[in-house]
Protein backbone atom coordinates (compact mmCIF):
# COMPACT_ATOMS: atom_id res chain seq x y z
CA UNK A 1 0.00 0.00 0.00
CA UNK A 2 1.27 3.45 -0.88
CA UNK A 3 0.79 6.59 1.16
CA UNK A 4 1.60 10.24 0.40
CA UNK A 5 3.10 12.36 3.16
CA UNK A 6 4.39 15.93 2.90
CA UNK A 7 7.40 16.55 5.14
CA UNK A 8 8.56 20.15 4.76
CA UNK A 9 9.87 20.40 1.17
CA UNK A 10 9.64 16.65 0.52
CA UNK A 11 6.89 14.63 -1.09
CA UNK A 12 7.24 11.24 0.59
CA UNK A 13 5.79 8.13 -1.03
CA UNK A 14 5.60 5.45 1.64
CA UNK A 15 5.16 1.70 1.08
CA UNK A 16 5.03 -1.33 3.35
CA UNK A 17 6.95 -3.46 0.82
CA UNK A 18 8.03 -3.01 -2.80
CA UNK A 19 10.75 -4.64 -4.89
CA UNK A 20 13.11 -1.64 -4.75
CA UNK A 21 12.78 2.02 -3.78
CA UNK A 22 15.55 2.77 -6.27
CA UNK A 23 13.75 1.05 -9.15
CA UNK A 24 10.46 2.74 -8.21
CA UNK A 25 12.23 6.11 -8.31
CA UNK A 26 13.52 5.29 -11.81
CA UNK A 27 9.97 4.42 -12.89
CA UNK A 28 8.68 7.76 -11.59
CA UNK A 29 11.28 9.59 -13.65
CA UNK A 30 10.74 7.55 -16.82
CA UNK A 31 6.97 8.07 -16.62
CA UNK A 32 7.27 11.82 -16.09
CA UNK A 33 5.83 11.67 -12.56
CA UNK A 34 9.00 12.63 -10.71
CA UNK A 35 9.67 16.01 -9.17
CA UNK A 36 12.53 17.54 -7.20
CA UNK A 37 12.64 16.44 -3.56
CA UNK A 38 10.50 13.33 -3.97
CA UNK A 39 11.39 10.48 -1.62
CA UNK A 40 10.38 6.82 -1.91
CA UNK A 41 10.30 5.00 1.43
CA UNK A 42 9.70 1.29 2.05
CA UNK A 43 9.46 -0.69 5.27
CA UNK A 44 10.90 -3.67 3.35
CA UNK A 45 12.18 -4.51 -0.14
CA UNK A 46 11.99 -7.81 -2.00
CA UNK A 47 14.69 -6.89 -4.54
CA UNK A 48 16.85 -4.23 -2.90
CA UNK A 49 20.23 -3.66 -4.51
CA UNK A 50 23.50 -1.88 -3.90
CA UNK A 51 26.50 -1.02 -6.04
CA UNK A 52 27.24 -3.35 -8.96
CA UNK A 53 23.67 -4.66 -8.54
CA UNK A 54 24.68 -6.58 -5.42
CA UNK A 55 21.68 -7.79 -3.45
CA UNK A 56 20.75 -5.58 -0.48
CA UNK A 57 18.89 -7.72 2.06
CA UNK A 58 15.93 -5.59 3.13
CA UNK A 59 13.85 -7.02 5.96
CA UNK A 60 11.32 -5.03 7.98
CA UNK A 61 12.70 -2.86 10.76
CA UNK A 62 15.29 -0.83 8.85
CA UNK A 63 15.28 2.39 6.82
CA UNK A 64 15.15 2.07 3.04
CA UNK A 65 14.69 5.30 1.12
CA UNK A 66 15.49 6.76 -2.29
CA UNK A 67 15.65 10.54 -2.73
CA UNK A 68 15.00 12.15 -6.12
CA UNK A 69 16.65 15.51 -6.79
CA UNK A 70 16.85 17.65 -9.93
CA UNK A 71 20.34 17.28 -11.38
CA UNK A 72 20.83 18.23 -15.04
CA UNK A 73 24.56 17.57 -14.64
CA UNK A 74 26.50 14.91 -12.78
CA UNK A 75 28.20 15.97 -9.57
CA UNK A 76 31.35 13.92 -8.85
CA UNK A 77 31.47 15.26 -5.28
CA UNK A 78 27.87 14.36 -4.39
CA UNK A 79 28.74 11.04 -2.76
CA UNK A 80 30.79 12.83 -0.11
CA UNK A 81 27.93 15.16 0.79
CA UNK A 82 25.58 12.18 1.13
CA UNK A 83 28.07 10.23 3.23
CA UNK A 84 28.48 13.14 5.63
CA UNK A 85 24.70 13.61 5.85
CA UNK A 86 24.19 9.93 6.76
CA UNK A 87 27.14 9.88 9.18
CA UNK A 88 25.89 13.04 10.92
CA UNK A 89 22.44 11.47 11.24
CA UNK A 90 23.79 8.29 12.82
CA UNK A 91 26.16 10.26 15.08
CA UNK A 92 23.23 12.35 16.36
CA UNK A 93 21.95 9.25 18.18
CA UNK A 94 25.20 8.85 20.12
CA UNK A 95 26.96 6.38 17.79
CA UNK A 96 30.47 6.88 16.44
CA UNK A 97 30.32 6.27 12.67
CA UNK A 98 33.18 6.18 10.22
CA UNK A 99 32.97 6.63 6.45
CA UNK A 100 34.56 3.94 4.30
CA UNK A 101 35.31 5.56 0.97
CA UNK A 102 33.30 6.77 -0.70
CA UNK A 103 30.06 6.46 1.30
CA UNK A 104 29.64 3.22 3.26
CA UNK A 105 29.11 3.93 6.95
CA UNK A 106 30.81 1.75 9.58
CA UNK A 107 30.37 1.52 13.33
CA UNK A 108 33.03 -0.44 15.23
CA UNK A 109 34.40 -1.51 11.85
CA UNK A 110 31.08 -3.06 10.75
CA UNK A 111 28.81 -1.79 7.99
CA UNK A 112 25.66 -0.08 9.22
CA UNK A 113 24.62 1.88 6.13
CA UNK A 114 25.15 1.95 2.37
CA UNK A 115 24.32 4.39 -0.40
CA UNK A 116 23.61 3.95 -4.11
CA UNK A 117 23.71 7.02 -6.39
CA UNK A 118 22.31 6.75 -9.91
CA UNK A 119 21.46 9.34 -12.56
CA UNK A 120 18.31 9.21 -14.67
CA UNK A 121 17.31 11.93 -17.13
CA UNK A 122 17.53 15.31 -15.40
CA UNK A 123 17.49 13.73 -11.94
CA UNK A 124 19.77 11.97 -9.50
CA UNK A 125 18.46 9.16 -7.29
CA UNK A 126 20.15 8.69 -3.92
CA UNK A 127 19.26 5.37 -2.33
CA UNK A 128 20.11 4.95 1.35
CA UNK A 129 19.77 1.89 3.55
CA UNK A 130 20.39 2.07 7.30
CA UNK A 131 20.38 -0.99 9.56
CA UNK A 132 18.19 -0.01 12.49
CA UNK A 133 16.60 -3.09 14.08
CA UNK A 134 18.22 -5.87 12.06
CA UNK A 135 21.44 -6.49 10.17
CA UNK A 136 21.98 -9.08 7.45
CA UNK A 137 24.66 -11.75 7.42
CA UNK A 138 26.96 -10.99 4.50
CA UNK A 139 29.95 -13.04 3.35
CA UNK A 140 32.10 -10.08 2.25
CA UNK A 141 31.98 -7.99 5.44
CA UNK A 142 30.59 -7.74 8.96
CA UNK A 143 27.43 -5.76 9.66
CA UNK A 144 25.80 -4.12 12.66
CA UNK A 145 22.63 -2.17 13.54
CA UNK A 146 21.77 1.03 15.37
CA UNK A 147 19.59 -0.78 17.92
CA UNK A 148 22.74 -2.39 19.34
CA UNK A 149 23.79 1.04 20.59
CA UNK A 150 20.69 3.15 21.15
CA UNK A 151 16.91 3.10 20.93
CA UNK A 152 16.03 4.59 17.54
CA UNK A 153 12.57 6.05 16.78
CA UNK A 154 12.18 5.47 13.03
CA UNK A 155 10.30 8.73 12.38
CA UNK A 156 12.97 10.75 14.17
CA UNK A 157 15.69 8.95 12.21
CA UNK A 158 13.94 9.87 8.95
CA UNK A 159 13.43 13.49 10.01
CA UNK A 160 17.07 13.92 11.01
CA UNK A 161 18.24 12.30 7.78
CA UNK A 162 16.12 14.67 5.70
CA UNK A 163 17.40 17.69 7.59
CA UNK A 164 21.01 16.59 7.13
CA UNK A 165 20.47 15.89 3.43
CA UNK A 166 19.04 19.39 3.04
CA UNK A 167 22.07 20.90 4.74
CA UNK A 168 25.01 18.88 3.41
CA UNK A 169 23.89 18.49 -0.21
CA UNK A 170 24.00 22.26 -0.58
CA UNK A 171 26.95 23.04 1.71
CA UNK A 172 30.23 24.42 0.39
CA UNK A 173 32.49 21.51 -0.54
CA UNK A 174 35.28 22.80 1.70
CA UNK A 175 33.00 22.16 4.69
CA UNK A 176 31.92 18.78 3.28
CA UNK A 177 35.54 17.74 2.69
CA UNK A 178 36.58 18.76 6.21
CA UNK A 179 33.70 16.84 7.79
CA UNK A 180 34.31 13.80 5.56
CA UNK A 181 37.92 13.76 6.76
CA UNK A 182 36.67 13.89 10.37
CA UNK A 183 34.56 10.78 9.74
CA UNK A 184 36.94 9.08 7.29
CA UNK A 185 38.05 5.55 8.11
CA UNK A 186 41.77 4.70 7.86
CA UNK A 187 43.01 8.22 7.16
CA UNK A 188 46.85 8.02 6.99
CA UNK A 189 46.64 4.24 7.38
CA UNK A 190 47.38 1.33 5.00
CA UNK A 191 44.68 0.16 2.56
CA UNK A 192 44.72 -1.95 -0.58
CA UNK A 193 43.93 -0.49 -3.99
CA UNK A 194 43.85 -2.78 -7.03
CA UNK A 195 45.40 -5.46 -4.86
CA UNK A 196 48.45 -3.40 -3.89
CA UNK A 197 49.12 -1.61 -0.59
CA UNK A 198 48.89 2.16 -0.29
CA UNK A 199 48.40 4.85 2.35
CA UNK A 200 45.02 6.60 2.38
CA UNK A 201 45.79 10.33 2.54
CA UNK A 202 42.27 11.75 2.13
CA UNK A 203 40.23 13.47 -0.57
CA UNK A 204 41.17 16.54 -2.57
CA UNK A 205 39.15 19.62 -3.52
CA UNK A 206 37.87 17.90 -6.68
CA UNK A 207 36.55 14.85 -4.84
CA UNK A 208 39.31 12.41 -5.79
CA UNK A 209 40.59 9.94 -3.22
CA UNK A 210 44.28 10.56 -2.61
CA UNK A 211 46.52 7.54 -2.00
CA UNK A 212 50.30 7.36 -1.55
CA UNK A 213 52.61 4.57 -2.67
CA UNK A 214 56.17 5.26 -1.60
CA UNK A 215 56.73 8.76 -3.02
CA UNK A 216 53.96 8.58 -5.67
CA UNK A 217 50.48 9.98 -5.15
CA UNK A 218 47.45 8.37 -6.83
CA UNK A 219 44.12 10.04 -7.52
CA UNK A 220 41.25 7.54 -7.46
CA UNK A 221 37.73 8.10 -8.76
CA UNK A 222 35.04 5.48 -8.10
CA UNK A 223 37.14 2.34 -7.61
CA UNK A 224 36.83 0.32 -4.43
CA UNK A 225 39.54 0.08 -1.79
CA UNK A 226 39.99 -2.59 0.87
CA UNK A 227 40.57 -1.55 4.46
Structural features, described:
This protein is an alpha+beta fold and 227 residues long. The chain folds into two domains: 182 residues, BirA Bifunctional Protein, domain 2; 37 residues, no CATH class. The protein contains four helices and 13 strands. Strand 6 and strand 7 form a beta hairpin. The mean pLDDT is 90.
Morphology: globular
| Rg of Cα set | 17 Å
How many beta-strand segments?
13
Structural class: alpha+beta
Largest sheet: 8 strands, mixed
Key traits:
single chain; 227 residues; alpha+beta; BirA Bifunctional Protein, domain 2; 2 domains; 8-stranded mixed β-sheet; 5-stranded antiparallel β-sheet; globular
Q: How would you summarize this macromolecular structure in one to three sentences?
A:
The chain has 227 residues and is α+β, with helices and mostly antiparallel strands.
Indicate the topology:
Elements: E1 2-7, E2 10-18, H1 21-30, E3 38-45, E4 63-70, H2 78-91, E5 97-100, E6 104-107, E7 110-120, E8 123-130, H3 154-168, H4 173-183, E9 190-193, E10 196-203, E11 209-213, E12 216-220, E13 225-226
Parallel strand pairs: 2-3
Antiparallel strand pairs: 1-2, 3-4, 4-8, 5-6, 6-7, 7-8, 9-10, 9-13, 10-11, 11-12
Amino acid sequence: MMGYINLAKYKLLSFDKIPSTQDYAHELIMSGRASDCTAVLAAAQSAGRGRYRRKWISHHGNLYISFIYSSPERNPRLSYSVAVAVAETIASFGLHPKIKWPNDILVDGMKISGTLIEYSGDYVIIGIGINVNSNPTVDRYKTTKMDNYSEIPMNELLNRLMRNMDYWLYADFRAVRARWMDFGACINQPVKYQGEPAILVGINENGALVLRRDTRYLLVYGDEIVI
